[in-house]
Specification:
Layout (H helix, E strand, L loop, with lengths): L3 H15 L6 E5 L5 H9 L4 E6 L5 H5 L6 H14 L5 E5 L5 H4 L5 E6 L7 H12 E9 L15 H11 L4
Parallel strand pairs: 1-2, 1-4, 2-3, 4-5
Helix pairs in contact: 1-2
Amino acid sequence: YTSRHYHLFAGINDIFKEQNITVKNILEIGTDKGDFANFLSRIYTESQIYTIDLPDDDPIFNEIYGREDKCYKERFFNERKNNLMPSNINFIRLNSTNLLDKFSDIKFDLIWIDGDHYNPQVTIDIMNSLQLAHEQSIICVDDVCIENYKEDYVSNESFLTLENLEKNKIL
């Protein structure tokens, strides 16, 4: 099973190639095991991929996705290390609230928001991404649920933010 966003980003790459557009910088918010960053590094071979995730000692990082289990956490770190090996991947341990401080001098052509799916963080990530984008950038957001929805790791809060930005003619 491959999530639809793999197909989406492969298709976006095809469109960029057809239009002779060079994708220089890609930002991924939420690295997890690094599978998607690795995928991006293989299809966007000329791009620099910046993937960020919470620092390893962050309590939130250590309390989700089964990382409180020592054996799982060791396997997780090994898998992430292997996935992030390509030379065009830049892995940064950073709370995404601080994106603008870290990337004040870079504009991204493509941004994938797949960090915390709840407010306030998802709204902060969307707003920061808008600041890090240029006029031709593409920003994609994971798990945009239109209906009122909330479970352990997914909610409709990104949709509500995007809807508000659209109503206010920001998007």
